[in-house]
Specification:
45% strand; mainly beta; 217 residues; eleven-stranded mixed β-sheet; 0% helix
Length: 217
């Protein structure tokens, strides 16, 4: 079955939101830095891994947005939002087993001038706690009910979060890896993570307009 697979990239997005949209409350609004700068999602992966880290020290349950990724402009089409097997594959790591760190995801359709016009995936956490070594994690989810009419130049946005169920007030570090050349494999060590977000259908981009060239003799 044809799908659209977006890789998380480190370049700044040409358009997109300027802050979180998820219904989660961010308990660390300034950590990590530059989290409100939208970055690209591309069907092409990177070549050299980069990382994002944050230090967290609240006991109990907390949430932190890590990065937001924005896909390319789309053509008008129908999104089958309620399909199964939306997939989020990331490289992730916690500094200490007491941190109880889990990757978490939120996906929606963004429209310039409006914002979120269709939530696709409500906040969803990975089931397995992150390891203290860099490891791949794959999370699957079923989309929200209701097909949706994507309009020209709408974009898919993914917010990458951390769910933290810390057992004590100590400084623990969380790390997220992307822009690499190797797709993360669930539960497998990685050092070159090409974090990706996969939709269970093919989304099309606008076709470039054709301008005829008239040659006069």
């Amino acid at each position: 079955m044809a799908v659209t697979k977006y890789y998380a990239r480190s370049s700044s997005a040409a358009a997109g939101p300027t802050g979180e949209v998820s219904t989660d409350t961010d308990n660390f609004t300034t950590v990590p830095t530059s989290k409100n700068t939208p970055l690209d999602m591309s069907t092409s992966k990177g070549s050299s891994q980069v990382s994002v880290t944050g230090v967290y020290n609240l006991s109990g349950t907390s949430y932190a947005m890590v990065r937001m990724f924005v896909g390319p402009a789309l053509a008008a089409q129908t999104l089958t939002a309620s399909a199964a097997n939306y997939t989020f594959a990331v490289g992730n790591q916690e500094s200490n087993g007491n941190m109880n760190l889990y990757p978490r995801f939120f996906m929606y359709v963004w429209r310039s001038g409006t914002g979120n016009v269709k939530t696709i995936i409500t906040p969803t956490s990975e089931a397995t706690e992150s390891a203290t070594a860099e490891t791949g994690y794959t999370t699957t989810a079923t989309g929200e009910a209701g097909d949706f009419s994507i309009e020209l130049n709408d974009r898919i946005v993914v917010e990458m979060w951390w769910y933290i169920n810390n057992t004590r007030e100590a400084n623990y570090t969380a790390s997220f890896y992307f822009e690499g050349a190797t797709d993360p494999v669930d539960g497998t060590a990685t050092s070159d993570a090409a974090t990706y977000f996969q939709l269970p259908q093919t989304l099309t981009e606008p076709t470039a307009a054709f301008t005829p060239i008239i040659i006069q003799y």
